[in-house]
Amino acid sequence: MIRFNNVNKWYGREHHVLKNINLKVNAGEVVVVCGPSGSGKSTLIRTINQLEPIEQGEIWVDEVQVNNPRTNINRLREEVGFVFQHFNLYPHLSVLDNITLAPIKVKKLAPEAARERALELLVRVGLEHKRDAYPSNLSGGQQQRVAIARGLAMQPKVMLFDEPTSALDPEMIGEVLQVMQDLAKSGMTMMVVTHEMGFAREVADRVIFLDHGEILEDTQPEWFFTRPQHERSRQFLRQVL
Ligand code: ADP
Ligand code: MG
């Protein structure tokens, strides 16, 4: 579903931020990306929907080559849902309108159908009772669950998450991880940047460890946590576990 072939990216001339990245994510797989701050995790997943361009190599999502000038980036972004650290909900729209906006505007879904789909998604994330609330009246955990529902409303093939729980108070992390775990069980293809190693251990099919823009580990969680291959990953694990 996602493929990186020899991908290199620089910021400016000097900063080689992604170094010869090769990776594959199969349909239905959940891949956790971890690594020290500044190692390139956000850059890596942002290249998948062309929020960041690449200088070398190829990225594919299903049958679409992301870094091809002829690729319709708006179409691509319909297929690839993205959940940010800071939920980025529209503050002036109700929960329901946040979720129905893109399906109506972009996918030309009839408002009634969009509303029905949104309500189903709100049930799924446990927030049907908040459909008429505004983002400012929701907790951080609730806002992030709405953001996930909003992403799912476009019926993407892939969902990307960039530290979805790191802006949350500790007591709200669990409810968001639970929604993500349910999504994983439903068969969604997911790439998740997170420091939540419990989630990685329980939910991920694979863990990728990034350091200075290089993939040092790409392995099953079991192996990552018990037999990391590099000193840098051992050091990272000592800090986060
Ligand atoms: P992570 O998500 O692992 O913390 P990032 O992908 O955000 O890492 O950043 C990787 C490196 O690239 C960092 O050194 C960061 O300062 C740098 N960087 C990130 N975004 C930009 C940008 N838009 N321009 C220049 N440098 C950037
Ligand atoms: Mg980041």
Written description of the protein model:
With 241 residues, the protein is an alpha/beta fold. The chain is 37% helix and 25% strand. Strands 6-7-8-3-9-10 form a six-stranded mixed sheet. Strand 9 (206-211) and strand 10 form a beta hairpin. The protein is globular. It binds adenosine-5'-diphosphate and magnesium ion. Adenosine-5'-diphosphate (ADP) binds next to strand 2 and helix 1.
Summarize this structure briefly.
With 241 residues, this protein is of the alpha/beta class.
What features would you highlight for this structure?
binds adenosine-5'-diphosphate; single chain; 241 residues; 10 strands; 4-stranded antiparallel sheet; 6-stranded mixed sheet
